[in-house]
Design goal:
- Helix 1 packs parallel to helix 3 and helix 2 packs antiparallel against helix 3.
- This protein is 89% helix and 0% strand.
- The protein is an all-alpha fold.
- The protein has one domain.
């Protein structure tokens, strides 16, 4: 029985040694994806949308509601972004402090994937609103 337990512990050590590498790689990939999405969304909001708004103002046209919604959301994030980031950091710290589950890394991965999906949806809406705004430019 002692030999069986020893072999099981060796197998667990080998398996767990490999598992953390893949978990780390998956989490790093999700984090890199989120960083690229946030950078892309930031570039759209900083460089492209002001140019579209400028085109509307030089032609004397009113800005459509779907672009105004993007501008209002960007203004809210600009004003309250530090507080939102602080709230996110505190929530993450509480999760890391209180969660004792053996599936903690999978929970991190799932929450990162959900965040990535949400950012992709927001970036998609902003991109479509910008492109439609350019197409229907009077």
């Amino acid at each position: 029985m002692g030999l069986l337990i020893e072999k099981a512990m060796e197998w667990k050590a080998k398996t767990m040694g490999k598992e953390w590498k893949w978990t780390f790689a998956a989490q790093a990939t999700v984090l890199a994806t989120i960083a690229v999405q946030v950078a892309t969304l930031g570039m759209i909001l900083v460089f492209i949308i002001p140019r579209v708004i400028e085109e509307y103002s030089t032609r004397g046209a009113t800005v459509p509601d779907y672009l105004r919604l993007v501008l209002n959301a960007a203004t809210i994030v600009n004003i309250h972004g530090v507080y939102m980031l602080l709230l996110f950091v505190v929530a993450w710290w509480i999760f890391e402090w209180r969660c004792r589950s053996e599936h903690k890394s999978l929970i991190r991965l799932a929450s990162g994937a959900f965040l990535s999906l949400a950012i992709a949806a927001i970036a998609g809406y902003v991109s479509v609103a910008t492109m439609v705004g350019l197409i229907v430019l009077p």
